Amino acid sequence: MQSIRDLKSNFSITPSSTMAGGPDSYHQGSMLMTLEDPELWKSFHEIGTEMIITKPGRRMFPHCKINLSGLVPYAKYILLVDMVPEDGFRYKWNKDKWEVAGKAEPQPPCRTYVHPDSPAPGSHWMKQSVSFLKLKLTNNTLDQHGHIILHSMHRYHPRFHIVQADDLYSVRWSVFQTFTFPETSFTAVTAYQNTKITKLKIDHNPFAKGFRDEGTNTKRRASRSLADPERAAKKMNSMKADSESPPDFRRSPCEIYDAEQPKRKDEEVVKEERYSPWAASEREHNHNLHTESPLGPDTRDMYNSEQLVPGQASYQPYRFREYGKSPSPSSSSVSSGGSSGASGRPSFESRVPDIATVPEPHASSKPAAHDMVPPSCAPQPPVGPQDYSGVFNMAMAQAGKSGVLGHHPLYAPYSTEQALGQWGGPAAAQYPGPHHLPAEYGAQAVHHSYHHGNMADWSQYPLFSYSCW
DNA sequence: TCCCCTCCCACCTTTGAACTGG
DNA sequence: ACCAGTTCAAAGGTGGGAGGGG
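Predict the joint structure of the above. Result:
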């Protein structure tokens, strides 16, 4: 197996030669993904986006909506989204600012949300914007609905994966193209911390229309005011203060970590670096990797991709080690250091092109073992709370029942009934391997793809397990 | 005491079934 | 009988606030 560094080098420098695909190769290097409503995302990002997570699951707002181009019209693709930790810290909201509150908690089960239309031909994806509206976030680690599990007060960013595959079973043999947009990073919270974020959400989210000042919610507000006039008054003062936005409040988070931040006026456009914890980690990340937003934060077409291998969720310790110490993904050994934000670069690696070694399913990866491919090649599993059985399980389960893949939301819950192993099964036999897929890497060096067909191990694990640290 | 989480509430949009008219 | 447009109720998504746990 090739080292990550090697792969990265190959992919980014030599477009089509390295992975010269087989006869049926498709040109994927020209894929382009753009984020819809970039201005909205930016407006949130400038303040420090927060996403509510609840036990039953909460939608994102703004929700992820993208436009695609450069796909082969008749080739089928699967679109997926997962959430990657931005760093190895836990944050707290302290007086208008986000501050680091310690090391991040162990990563929850990694899951990937499969777009309901998957798989669909390129023409389908390109004819209109692709929305991940129904993607939900939860803080319930025992969630059975397939929602993406996150930790509150931790920071994440969504990753979009495009996989050329006829069905979910063949995903593992396909080339993955991964994209991220800096402005989509957010802090998962159970209750909004920054009132400016609350206001933005209310102003833009139709479901929150009832909370708009100029709305018709007079009844609700009136009753509340009557019920607790003092509190209402206090609230009003608070809101007023917010609208007047004290300078440091606006800059909030960033100040702590970015002393160089220019003091900005209200009318100034805020750069993403402003957001403190964020800025710090992003900067660090970019410094080391330079894979994120190569075109700069303001570039519309953030087709910056990180070629990652959706592979298994290698979890932090595991993956981290791969990155930092072992040139070979397959060489594994859990490194405690990797999971620590303090010890270097925790989860930052998650944004980097990576070929994840597939750890052996956690013991809890349970059942479905019968569906799994013998884990003979799998590395030892990392120890920890993570549930590796995750990702596409539900999707596969549903597919199995319905006989049709991708006609409904295919979450990737880590159900006990479906194992990652599903990825192995028939697919392994049907799809010979690596060489039959493409590989023409576009002119853009930042646009990478991975071909992981020869990674047998993957068949046993959740597909994009990003993650984790 | 503080921080964070959970639950419940009222308000709103979305969705889809039922109904109506051409 | 069929189709398109309209109506309406149920389902589901919001943020706020109260209260509780650590």
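The first strand of chain A starts at residue 32 and ends at 35.
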